[in-house]
Design a protein that fits this description.
The protein has 120 residues and is an alpha+beta fold. It has 4 helices and 5 strands; from the N terminus they run αββαβββαα. The protein is globular and about 45 Å long.
């Protein structure tokens, strides 16, 4: 089911010990769009700036225990939803107030994502 939602082969990525990000196995190679919400969430959860981007649809679930993927807990779900909301809001703002550069956009995105994951 996850494979059909992602649209191809999937890789599991662990950026938080209580969550899995299911990412497209060849998103960059297939030239899928960058997923800034997933990238910002992964960076915030790991506490570092990932040197690579995430591409295409991403599904966030709870951990895999014994071969079954668990439901994401309410706190992490709220964080994922808030980071997604923030990314949508920033992208709208950037249409009238573009960031100075790509690194500046990433820093603004990460600052907001980190605040959202520490406050919820």
């Amino acid at each position: 089911m996850i494979r059909s939602l992602i649209g191809g082969t999937t890789d599991r990525a662990v950026y938080h010990r209580q969550a899995l990000l299911h990412v497209h196995g060849n998103g960059a190679g297939r030239r899928l769009p960058v997923n800034p919400a997933a990238w910002a969430l992964a960076c915030a959860w790991r506490g570092l700036n990932l040197p690579y981007l995430l591409y295409g649809p991403v599904l966030v679930t709870g951990p895999d225990t014994g071969g079954a993927v668990e439901t994401l807990n309410d706190r992490l779900l709220a964080q994922a939803e808030e980071v997604t909301r923030i990314v949508q809001e920033l992208r709208g703002q950037w249409s009238t107030r573009p960031p100075m550069s790509e690194p500046a956009a990433r820093e603004e995105l990460l600052a907001n994502a980190r605040q959202a994951t520490h406050c919820t």
